[in-house]
């Protein structure tokens, strides 16, 4: 009995003399507050454990009798993710920069359980080891758990909202007069709240108006209908896509702008099936009618890569009405083939079914046929040169608003037949472009030539003013005329931007009475500090049909 008691006391004394053992783990990588350690769950680490990093330094004792080497705490770490052979820690406090090769040890209250695990020795049983040829899944899981910075497009919110006041006064005997208060909004909100909803675009509308004289739409009123503002949903992990607002149907932009929406469902990786409905507010549309309603369905096929060959093909059917009266039943096709930035082929076509056309008291029957076709082939052999060949066809007379001829927004609608164009980017920020075509509509008494010439100066004589000058002459069965347009713009840093556009146009067409006019349209955009902006503008319009001066001012907040 005495012998057993003596042995027990000897073992207790031996254990008491053993130094405290705490596992240490080497720092192997440091990135953005995350510290990677050599050692994981196989070494006894677990999520939530705390470690300290110490480093030897030179200190002087208080007695001043000499210097001794002592360790000081550099950082305190907490384990946030663990794999078999590695762990990720978050640095809770730093007294000096960490280095690769520093040793991290468990704090005292958590070191004892690890020492007990280490004391199990060879009595502990281990599972069979498995080697992975493509990386350790546990290590990959640990890397996935590391906090990553948010993508820049997630919850990005930029935009501005302002209140507009405008006034219009008739000139040269015109009785036009108008004052109105409106709202202006420009939005760029992507991945709202971390979702896949986006709200982008520009909108300008009136809240109330007081007017006298004829209520004809002005040039600014027409331009406001060409802007887009939409809320859309596009989730790469979902089969559904949707959009609502003033927008293009993404897979059928040839249908022009609609005030309405679309809903689509992806069928696999290639196909999208969808529906759309809305009204047609855009005065630059080839068959513009503000009272038209349109709805239809489509299927789109697309594939390939932007870095190589890519294709898109849309087929659909639609019906349109004017008010409650049926107008057209038609099929539409939109196809594109693209190879990098080198070659692109794009074709859009609309084909009408049989329909009755009523003009006044007379009704005529229209047979099925192609009502609209546009084909363009573009090649860019070098980065500074672009060549294109196009063919344009209309079965019926286009109904765009002719007052926009001088703005350049109708260039693709002012001719029929074949045309060829080129654009050349020269040194010193100079670009020249041209398009020449020959009208060949069946029934024309004679063929006619359509011409467009233009030059863009990125900067005039070091002043920072950008200039675009163009001249166009057109002659077809639905209209003839010419226009000249000049555009100037200048940006003063990031706070102020100024722009002016002027033009002269002559347009003779069975669509409307002869239109001869000239205009000057100028605007200024000024950022007032970090959160506010001021916008103003003036329009001078003289012509056969409209003579007026108009100005506007917008004051609002940006974010």
Distance from N terminus to C terminus (CA atoms, Å) equals 87 Å
Number of helices: 4
Tell me the fraction of residues in β-strands, as a range.
Answer: over 45%
pLDDT < 50 runs, ≥5 residues? 1-5, 7-11, 13-20, 58-68, 110-126
Measured as a percent range, the helix fraction is under 10%
Could you say which overall geometry the principal axes of the C-alpha atoms support?
Answer: elongated
Q: What integer value in Å does the Rg equal?
A: 36 Å
CATH topology of the domain at 236-382: Porin
- Number of beta-strand segments: 30
* Largest beta-sheet characterization: 22 strands, antiparallel, barrel
**Mean pLDDT over the residues:** 82
Task: Characterise this structure.
- Among the domains are: 18-59 and 69-144, Thrombin, subunit H (Beta Barrel), CATH 2.40.10.170; 236-382, Porin, CATH 2.40.160.
- The chain is built from 4 helices and 30 strands.
- The chain has helices spanning 2-17, 108-118, 137-144, 219-224; strands spanning 24-31, 34-38, 50-59, 68-82, 86-94, 103-106, 156-170, 177-190, 197-212, 229-234, 240-247, 258-267, 271-279, 292-304, 309-322, 325-339, 343-352, 355-359, 362-366, 369-382, 385-394, 417-426, 430-439, 448-457, 465-476, 479-492, 496-509, 512-528, 532-543, 548-558.
- It has a 22-stranded antiparallel β-barrel. Strands 1-2-5-4-3-6 form a 6-stranded antiparallel β-barrel. The protein has a two-stranded antiparallel ribbon with strand order 18-19.
- It is elongated.
Summary of the model, kept short:
The protein is mainly beta and 559 residues long. The chain has helices at residues 2-17, 108-118, 137-144, 219-224, and strands at residues 24-31, 34-38, 50-59, 68-82, 86-94, 103-106, 156-170, 177-190, 197-212, 229-234, 240-247, 258-267, 271-279, 292-304, 309-322, 325-339, 343-352, 355-359, 362-366, 369-382, 385-394, 417-426, 430-439, 448-457, 465-476, 479-492, 496-509, 512-528, 532-543, 548-558.
């Amino acid at each position: 009995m005495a012998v057993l008691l003596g042995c027990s006391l000897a073992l207790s004394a031996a254990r008491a003399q053993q130094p405290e053992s705490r596992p240490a783990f080497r720092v192997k990588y440091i990135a953005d507050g995350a510290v990677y350690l050599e050692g994981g769950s196989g070494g006894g680490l677990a999520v939530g454990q705390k470690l300290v990093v110490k480093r030897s330094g030179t200190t002087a004792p208080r007695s001043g009798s000499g210097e001794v080497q002592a360790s000081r705490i550099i950082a305190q770490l907490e384990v946030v993710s663990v794999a078999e052979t590695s762990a990720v820690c978050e640095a809770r406090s730093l007294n000096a920069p960490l280095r690769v090769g520093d040793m991290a040890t468990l704090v005292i209250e958590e070191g004892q359980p690890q020492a007990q695990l280490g004391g199990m020795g060879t009595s502990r049983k281990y599972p069979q080891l498995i080697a992975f040829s493509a990386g350790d899944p546990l290590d990959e899981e640990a890397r996935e758990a590391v906090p990553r910075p948010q993508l820049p497009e997630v919850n990005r919110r930029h935009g501005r909202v302002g209140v507009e006041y405008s006034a219009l006064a008739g000139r040269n005997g015109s009785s036009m007069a108008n004052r109105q208060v409106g709202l202006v909004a420009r939005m760029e909100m992507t991945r709202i709240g971390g979702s896949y909803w986006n709200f982008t675009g520009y909108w300008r509308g009136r809240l109330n108006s007081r007017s006298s004289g004829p209520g004809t739409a002005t040039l600014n009123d027409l331009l406001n209908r060409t802007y887009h503002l939409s809320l859309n949903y596009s989730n790469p992990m979902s089969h559904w896509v949707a959009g609502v607002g003033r927008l293009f149907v993404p897979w059928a932009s040839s249908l022009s702008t609609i005030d309405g929406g679309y809903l689509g469902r992806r069928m696999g990786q290639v196909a999208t099936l969808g529906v759309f409905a809305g009204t047609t507010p855009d005065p630059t549309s080839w068959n513009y009618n503000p009272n038209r309603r349109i709805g239809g369905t489509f299927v789109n096929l697309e594939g390939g890569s932007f870095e190589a060959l890519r294709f898109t093909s849309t087929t659909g059917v639609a019906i349109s009405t004017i008010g409650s009266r049926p107008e057209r039943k038609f099929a539409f096709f939109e196809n594109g083939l693209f190879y990098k930035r080198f070659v692109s082929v794009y074709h859009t076509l609309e084909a009408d079914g049989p329909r009755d056309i009523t003009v006044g008291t007379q009704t005529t029957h229209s047979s099925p046929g192609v009502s609209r076709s546009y084909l363009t082939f573009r090649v860019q052999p070098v980065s500074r040169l672009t060549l294109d060949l196009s063919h344009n066809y209309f079965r019926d007379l286009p109904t765009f608003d002719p007052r926009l001829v001088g703005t350049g927004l109708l260039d693709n609608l002012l001719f029929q037949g074949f045309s060829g164009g080129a654009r050349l980017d020269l040194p010193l920020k100079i670009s020249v472009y041209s398009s020449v075509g020959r009208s060949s509509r069946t029934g024309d008494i004679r063929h006619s030539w359509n011409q467009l010439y233009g030059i863009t100066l990125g900067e005039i004589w070091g002043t920072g003013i950008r200039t675009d000058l163009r001249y166009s002459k057109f002659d077809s069965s639905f209209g003839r005329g010419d226009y000249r347009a000049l555009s100037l713009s200048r940006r003063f840093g990031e706070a102020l931007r100024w722009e002016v556009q002027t033009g002269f146009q002559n347009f003779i067409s069975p669509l409307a009475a002869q239109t001869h006019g000239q205009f000057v349209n100028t605007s200024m955009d000024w950022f007032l500090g970090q959160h506010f902006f001021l916008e103003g503008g003036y329009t001078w319009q003289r012509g056969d049909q409209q003579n007026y001066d108009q100005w506007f001012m917008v004051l609002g907040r940006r974010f």
